[in-house]
Amino acid sequence: MSEIQPYPKVSIIILHLKNIHCLIDSILSLNKISYENFDIFIVHNGPKSKILEENLASISQRITEVINTGENVGFAMGNNIGIKQALRKGGEYILLLNDDTVVSADFLDILLDAGENKPDAGMLGSKIYYFDEPRRIWFAGAYVDSGTCMITTPGSDQIDEEESFEPIESDYITGCALLIKRQTIEQIGLLDERFFLYWEDVDWGLRAQKAGYKNLVIPGAHIWHKVSTSTGGMDSVLRVYHKTRSHLLMARIHVPKMLIPLHIKFFRDIAWLLFKSHDTNRSKKARAYIAAIRDYHLGKTDKGPQWIWNDETNKG
Fold first, then answer.
1. Residue 154: is the preceding peptide bond cis (ω within 30°)?
2. Which domain covers residue 255, as residue numbers?
3. Which helix (H) or strand (E) holds 44?
4. Pfam families, alphabetically (predicted)?
5. In degrees rounded to 5, what are phi and psi of residue 276?
6. HSE of 225 in the Cβ direction (CA atoms, 13 Å)?
7. pLDDT at residue 313, as a whole number
8. I need a surface site. Which of 2, 143, 201, 202 has the fewest CB within 10 A?
9. Number of domains in the chain
10. Are residues 161 and 252 both part of a single domain?
């Protein structure tokens, strides 16, 4: 790592739900990184698991603590539990890392180089690829349309042929792999726990921007993502429900004028599913949309109805 002495302490927070094989692969890749000053906090988003703790103790000495939440408390609250503990133990940077990722050996060196040399960078992210297609981009920056509250992700799903290593300004950094400075957290606060799943990273990034920070994707730092292993497939009922409910909350907070148009969009999506779609799960997805809109208006911020978690579409 160039020009950083001493190495700032990085605390890596890995929120784990159910796929221990992915988690182990992720930790094994962290064992090989060249950055020296880091520790790992595993937040098990569920009840205490002796088997999990025994497995983890045998594969990495970098694991400082395994924290059990007792139940699924969601992405934001689960990560916040880890962040607070990491800050108490002196973390200068916090890295949120999905448990279904594999990292390159130098990714943290590259991110820290950028973080230390760019004082206005509040959050930094890697260029993320699909695990099954190692050159196809999953995330390389994203932009939120302030007029519509919709997201565009330039480069997403394309084969990476870009040779530039210049940082990419982004409206937010995906929570899949998000490096944030301690001072940024102290200024803007933790993740908003009203977002049980999805959109919490977008909200965090916009809050950082409003506080005067930049969110930067650093193209030379590479990560590979086994997409949606913890919430089923890309079109699971669980994903439809939480994406919809959290999107409405996001609009209310940041672009309230879009709440009515967003409702209209979702009702059109429901009509399309019911009357035009050939999707074999169309009725379940329509039901998920309706439940999400209802629960948003009821002010619910919990995990949602149990049936969305039990549905077979989540076994992706």
1. no
2. 237-314
3. strand 38-44
4. Glycos_transf_2 (PF00535)
5. -125, -25
6. 22
7. 66
8. 2
9. 2
10. no
Tokens 């998920």 sit on residue: 288
Residues 90 and 24 in one domain: yes
Residue type, 155: G
Which residues are CB-neighbours of 104 under 8 A, at least 6 positions away?
A: 33, 221, 222, 223
Residue 146 is predicted with a pLDDT of 84
3-state helix, strand, coil in the chain (%, to 5): 40, 20, 40
Residues 119 and 14 in one domain: yes
Kindly report the three-state secondary structure assignment for every residue of the chain: CCCCCCCCCEEEEEEECCCHHHHHHHHHHHCCCCCCCEEEEEEECCCCCHHHHHHHHHHCCCEEEEEECCCCCCHHHHHHHHHHHHHHCCCCEEEEEECCEEECCCHHHHHHHHHHHCCCEEEEEEEEEECCCCCEEEECCCEECCCCCCEECCCCCCECCCCCCCCEEECCCCCCEEEEEHHHHHHHCCCCCCCCCCCHHHHHHHHHHHCCCEEEEEEEEEEEECCCCCCCCCCCHHHHHHHHHHHHHHHHHHCHHHHHHHHHHHHHHHHHHHHCCCCCCHHHHHHHHHHHHHHHHCCCCCCCCHHHHHCHHHCC
Which of residues 203, 225, 247 is at a domain's end? 225
What's the rounded Cα separation, in Å, for the pair 304 and 17? 16
Q: What is the pLDDT of residue 315?
A: 60
* Helix pair angle (237-254, 259-275), 10° resolution: 160
pLDDT profile of the chain (316 residues), mean per 10: 72 94 96 97 89 84 93 97 98 98 98 97 98 96 91 95 88 98 98 98 98 98 83 75 98 96 96 93 95 99 95 66
Is 3 inside a domain boundary? no
The reported pLDDT for the residue numbered 230 is 52
Look up residue 106 and give its two tokens. 């130098």
Q: Are residues 149 and 276 in the same domain?
A: no
